[in-house]
UniProtKB/TrEMBL annotation:
EC number, UniProt record: 4.3.1.7
Entry protein name: Ethanolamine ammonia-lyase large subunit
Species assigned in the record: Acinetobacter lwoffii
Pfam families: EutB
GO BP of this protein: amino acid metabolic process; ethanolamine catabolic process
Domain of life per record: Bacteria
GO molecular function terms attached to this record: ethanolamine ammonia-lyase activity
Enzyme class: lyase
One cellular-component annotation, GO: cytosol
Length: 174
């Protein structure tokens, strides 16, 4: 089961009854834990500057969410994102959360969700953080990535291969 949460949703619907958004977010994780979920994901900056004023508040909210997820023992990940009208970027929060042991991030091609009009992390961000911290994907996924020619490894470091994998180049060049 997958749960998606995010600070501010109860405020935006006027359903908070005077309770602060972090307390409500922690309660959402407690409810999710009761269902023994596979994944819990906070969409930290999607609520926009109406509820998280700027990049500093988005960083604070992301770290609070991660801490509460760890405290409650839920398999927590984060969509490290921001709306297009927010004064923010995701690089600092990505690095802080990865150093704090975040379970996963969301990745959208090109970092731009055109349907929902927000910016998020992409696949290159996952590779950046793996290289920075010396992290590898799960063994099964790592094997598949290398078998497909999507990622290569040298001296315990992941990198993009110098050529496009055959199955991709065939589609692009035809």
């Amino acid at each position: 089961m997958y749960f998606e949460t995010g600070q501010g949703s109860a405020l935006s619907s006027n359903g908070h009854h005077g309770v602060d958004q972090q307390t409500l977010e922690a309660r959402a994780y407690a409810v999710a834990r009761k269902f023994n979920p596979l994944l819990v994901n906070t969409v930290v900056g999607f609520i926009g500057p109406e509820y998280l004023y700027n990049g500093k508040q988005i960083i604070r909210a992301g770290l609070e969410d991660h801490f509460c997820g760890k405290l409650l023992g839920v398999p927590m990940g984060c969509d490290i994102c921001y709306t297009n009208h927010a004064d923010a970027d995701q690089d600092i929060l990505l690095t802080l959360l990865a150093n704090a042991g975040l379970n996963f991030i969301m990745g959208i091609p090109g970092s731009d969700d055109v349907m929902l009009n927000y910016q998020t992390t992409s696949f290159h961000d996952a590779l950046y953080i793996r290289q920075l911290l010396g992290l590898k994907p799960a063994p099964e996924f790592d094997h598949w990535l290398q078998q497909q020619g999507i990622l290569a490894q040298q001296s315990n470091q992941l990198y993009w291969p110098t050529e496009l994998p055959k199955q991709f180049s065939r589609l692009i060049l035809s």
